[in-house]
Amino acid sequence: MKGLVRGGIFLERQLVLQNLKFVNEEEGDIVLREGKISHVTAPGKGQGEKVIDLTGHYVSSGWIDLHVHAFPEFDPYGDQIDEIGVKQGVTTIVDAGSCGADRIADLLADGERNETNLLAFLNISRIGLERVDELSRLEWIDHDKVMQAIQQYADKIVGLKARISSSVVGESGIEPLHIARQLSSETSLPLMVHIGSAPPKIEEVLALLKKGDVLTHYLNGKSNNLFYENGEPLPEFLDAIQRGIHLDVGHGTASFSFNVAEAAKRHHIGLHTISTDIYRGNRINGPVFSMAHILSKFLYLGYTLEEVIASVTSHAADWLKRPELGRIQVGDTANLTIFTVEGGSIELIDSQGEKRTGEKKINAKGVVIRDEFIKC
Fold first, then answer.
1. Which of 22, 49, 113, 278 has the largest count of CB atoms under 10 Å?
2. Residue-range definition of the domain harbouring residue 333
3. What is the distance in angstroms between the CA of the first residue and the CA of the last residue of the chain?
4. Residue-wise pLDDT tens digits, 250-268
5. How far apart are CA 189 and CA 204, in angstroms?
6. Based on the domain organization, do 44 and 83 belong to the same domain?
């Protein structure tokens, strides 16, 4: 048994989570036995040794954050796994390339010491985010080490990460992405590609993406973004969407713009997955703070609760090819997030410093993961 975190209750007997609301507004009780979903019944009808009345609370399958930085040794892009996982209502996090082949074993070993489920993208640079210009020297992309790491940790590595923006690649330009594309072909693993300031130009990046690849930071407001100044999407972006790329928010400190997000919504682009790109600095000081805070921004943008929650449950689980993580089904190991949606003014700030005022906020209240109920 892993170490018990704040508020944990071991589920050794039958537990009833009573009077919950599902995101479709239906109500019911979820009965758990020995860490598995025993059955779902009408509200107030569940029976068991322990009953927790959760009137006024929503439940979904456990939230999944497809883009985090969870290797605490690296600065600035690092944090403690459970701080950005179960303590925020997130049961599964996917580290987005914090580590390359040199340190991936350390990251995954740390995952075993925490409650949160941890998966990872492998940075194609063996040094990972030990430096923030990790693709500026092509010799740091070690083909053999990449292959060895993927073979050794095939159950945890879900893809390859390449950060393709000027501060990362330096004079290497677009070449790291060509190498990443070849590594993807050899391993049959998709790419997650970070976009940001040019060079390379965004059109060069888009041309190399294939079906199933993740384009993260797609709502960024930098000059090298995916929309013209009038809010129209670039034709190359629309072509890439037609090819089947996966769009991931990756909010972060510098990669989310309300104006761009509104343009995307007007053009019916997304919503595939909402992720935080969270690490210690933007968790404590903003503008990220938490997954729930980011989800509240998308309620403000006019997405329904079902659309917002799907983006951190079923959509993410389907991309990961782990559909069981995105559903509530009898017989499955318990994997649930419990949250509220509350009225009241909430200040929301994007990565450009633009402020908006929302009228609803999502608050994570707890998770059920494996055989524990953990309060947030």
1. 278
2. 9-60+329-343+358-375
3. 20
4. 999 999 999 999 999 999 9
5. 21
6. no
